Amino acid sequence: MRFLTAGETHGPQLTAIIEGMPSNMRFSFEEVNNQLQRRQKGYGRGRRMQIEQDTASVVGGVRHGKTTGAPIALVIENKDWKHWTTVMNIEPIEGSDEDKRRVHRPRPGHADLNGGLKYNLKDLRNVLERSSARETAARVAVGAVARQLLGEFGIKIAGQVIRIGKVEAQRRDLPIDEINRLTEESPVRVTDKRAEQQMMAHIDEIKQDGDSIGGIVECIVEGVPAGLGSHVQWDRKLDGRIAQAVISINAFKAVEYGIGFDMARLPGSQVHDEILYSKEQGFYRRTNRLGGFEGGMTTGEPIIVRGVMKPIPTLYKPLQSVDIDSKEPFSAQVERSDACAVPAASVVMENVVAWEIAVAFMEKFGGDSIEEIRANYEHYLAQLERY
Ligand code: EPS
Fold first, then answer.
1. 264: three-class secondary structure by DSSP
2. What is the sign, positive or negative, of the torsion defined by CA atoms of 19, 20, 22, 25?
3. Domain boundaries 2-386, corresponding CATH code
4. Residue nearest to ligand 1 atom 9, measured at CA
5. Nearest to 368, CA basis, from 6, 24, 10
6. Alpha helices (H) in the chain, listed in sequence order
7. Which terminal Cβ of the chain has fewer Cβ within 10 Å, N or C?
8. Is pLDDT of 289 > 60?
9. Are 218 and 162 in contact (CB under 8 A)?
10. 338 in ligand 1 pocket by Cβ < 6 Å?
11. Annotation-wise, does 376 bind a ligand?
12. What single DSSP character describes residue 169?
């Protein structure tokens, strides 16, 4: 299974094509739009989110509410496009740099300068339009389809914000449905009410300062059988593939599983998860400090993966940079942006993780129809039981 996305942040639309989804899967448009709307929320976002009301149109691969096995094509319109028809016109336009809103002062931390150097572009708008995190709307729509496949097999996903800047949420071991219920009610997607207030106050301070702030988000996946991914080849290790997908989310810089970076300072006896067995549960672990993976394969315990998001690079308080025309030092160009997008990034992370698990699920149980996959899946579960 694979997908590609296309589209610019101020262009007419985002487009995604998913290849390899099985046929006969019930397709919920509502679920795709629900995920898109979840991504748009979150305390700390800028004015752009008041313009957009993301919904996806399906323009291929679904008929009478079910997948056909053909590529699924999804389109999300940019409502803001109507303000950018000249600047983003695909035909050549006459006019000054001002009319074209040409960008020549790269923002530190953004893709602007590297993209300009690499693609030999003297208008950095060509870089920022595509590198914008707007693209994550398309990836959330794709993940929302993957989630429907996983849902057929009882796999559940939750996301929660663990840290925003200096405020850390108290992490509690709650049932996954409870995490989903509490985070859905929270403007910063936390389960800890005390931290919620402090995080919102912190975002206000940061915004007043013309600054931005990052954080940590956690994704939990339950109901994944043991044995997705593989130890036999480097690029089949599923924890590695999820890590790549998480780091590919705009502004994400680090990933950890389970107790994560704490593993570096603890002895093995306090890191590894002891193996137990019961007739009802089969093999299971006393703890889940490794976050659901050993040898690049799922253990059957919940997957617990965290991602670190750096502060958004577009600052109202610009950092020093160099003008690509004059080569003179300059304060970086200010573009409208969000002070904090960590809550939205939590939704993005859930959906990119869902995609990677769905890909591994299809590799293991792959078939062309949902019925074929179900038969393979049930056969495997019976094999695990007999083992
Ligand atoms: C973004 C800048 C802002 C964000 C945008 C990501 O957009 P604009 O430049 O139009 O103000 O709102 O995020 C989205 C549009 C979105 O849908 O998440 C950036 O530079 O990455």
1. helix
2. negative
3. 3.60.150.10
4. 336
5. 24
6. 29-40, 48-51, 97-100, 112-119, 125-131, 136-151, 176-185, 193-208, 238-247, 342-365, 370-386
7. C
8. yes
9. yes
10. yes
11. no
12. P
Residue whose C-alpha is closest to residue 152's, from 301, 298, 21: 21
Q: Over the stretch 103-157, which tens digit does the pLDDT of each residue have? A: 999 999 999 999 999 999 999 999 999 999 999 999 999 999 999 999 999 999 9
Site to probe by mutation for ligand 1, drawn from 77, 132, 140, 249 as the one with most ligand atoms within 8 Å of Cβ, is: 132
pLDDT for 68-83, tens place per residue?
A: 999 999 999 999 999 9
* pTM passes above 0.90: yes
Name the pLDDT band for 286 (thresholds 50, 70, 90): very high
Give strand ranges (E) for 155-302.
Answer: 156-164, 167-168, 215-222, 252-257, 275-278, 282-285, 293-294, 297-298
**311 assigned to a ligand binding site:** yes
For the chain, the average pLDDT equals 96
Q: Which atom of ligand 1 is nearest to the CA of 137?
A: 17
Atom of ligand 1 nearest to the CA of 80: 10
DSSP 313-325: S--SSPPEEE-TT
Pocket test for ligand 1, best of 48, 53, 128, 349 (most atoms within 8 A of CB): 48
